């Protein structure tokens, strides 16, 4: 197993909370993976937002699935990828409660260790998420899949945002990978392609485009 490339983590050091060293968390998650799945397992990971439309890794198969006890929420501040420190943007996270439809990917064992590192560098450069192994139904039975969840106690959690706050962010927030609005639209369209209707996200995008506040925007 090759050591993780640390260069991807450098731009996010200033965002890292105390005790959230992403490489220490990587080592822990990898130990959990092998303890659950054996010495040379396939890797399963659950995608609920950009991982669906831009996985950035080769996979052997993918399947629509649902996780229980967690829901998709556009409720995490993004001060690099989809916003700036001055005008923070938003990205999705998994928050506790409810359920979430998404896509589970299988990475075969011969590539699993490398993809684990690649996926970690993409999702965990600031150590913001709480990685968990969530049960996902697949044609092979239920498998433990790596998923990136967010605590409501995290400084990155937005708390409740009003419809007007969302609209302002959609209009103005842009980061190194583009705008929050483009990110939300890509996620919405990708979910629809997989047969998933996210009514909350549809309402947010409708409000961003028309200012319609008649549809309830209550998220949690």
Tag the structure with descriptive keywords:
220 residues, alpha+beta, Hypothetical upf0131 protein ytfp, three-stranded antiparallel β-sheet, two-stranded antiparallel ribbon, 29% strand, disordered C terminus
Structure description:
With 220 residues, the chain is of the alpha+beta class. The protein has a single domain, classed as Hypothetical upf0131 protein ytfp, CATH 3.10.490. It has helices at residues 22-37, 50-53, 109-123, 163-172, 180-193, 199-210; strands at residues 43-47, 61-78, 89-107, 130-138, 141-149, 174-175, 178-179. The protein has 6 helices and 7 strands, in the order αβαββαββαββαα. Mean pLDDT is 89; it is low at 215-220. It has a 3-stranded antiparallel beta sheet. A two-stranded antiparallel sheet has the order 4-5. A two-stranded antiparallel sheet has the order 6-7. A hairpin with a 2-residue loop joins β6 (174-175) and β7. It is globular.
The CATH first-level class comes to: Alpha Beta
- Helix tally equals 6
What is the terminal separation in angstroms? 41 Å
As for the number of domains, it is: 1
Average of pLDDT: 89
What profile does the largest beta sheet have? 3 strands, antiparallel
Order of helices and strands: HEHEEHEEHEEHH
Q: Give me the side-by-side strand order of the main sheet.
A: 1-3-2
Uncertain stretches: 215-220
**CATH homologous superfamily title:** Gamma-glutamyl cyclotransferase-like
CATH topology category name: Hypothetical upf0131 protein ytfp
Helical amount among residues, as a percent range?
25-40%
Portion in strands: 25-35%
Count the beta strands: 7
Radius of gyration: 17 Å
Structural class: alpha+beta
What's the architecture, going by CATH?
Roll
User: Based on CA inertia axes, which overall geometry fits?
Assistant: globular
């Amino acid at each position: 197993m090759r050591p993780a490339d640390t260069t991807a983590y450098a731009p996010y050091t200033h965002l890292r909370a105390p005790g959230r060293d992403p490489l220490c968390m990587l080592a822990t998650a990898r130990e959990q993976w092998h303890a659950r799945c054996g010495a040379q397992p396939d890797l399963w990971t659950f995608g609920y937002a950009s991982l669906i439309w831009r996985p950035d890794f080769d996979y052997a198969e993918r399947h629509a699935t649902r996780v229980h006890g967690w829901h998709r929420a556009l409720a995490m501040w993004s001060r690099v990828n989809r916003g700036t420190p001055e005008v923070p943007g938003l990205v999705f996270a998994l928050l506790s409660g409810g359920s979430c439809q998404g896509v589970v990917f299988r990475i075969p064992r011969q590539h699993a260790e490398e993809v684990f590192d690649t996926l970690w560098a993409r999702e965990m450069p600031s150590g913001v998420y709480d990685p968990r192994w969530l049960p996902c139904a697949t044609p092979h039975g239920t498998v433990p899949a790596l998923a990136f969840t967010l605590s409501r106690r995290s400084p990155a959690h937005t708390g409740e945002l009003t419809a007007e706050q969302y609209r302002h962010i959609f209009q103005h927030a842009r980061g190194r990978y583009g705008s929050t609005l483009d990110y939300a639209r890509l996620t919405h369209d990708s979910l629809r392609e997989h047969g998933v209707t996210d009514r909350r996200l549809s309402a947010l995008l409708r409000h961003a485009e028309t200012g319609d506040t008649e549809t309830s925007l209550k998220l949690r």
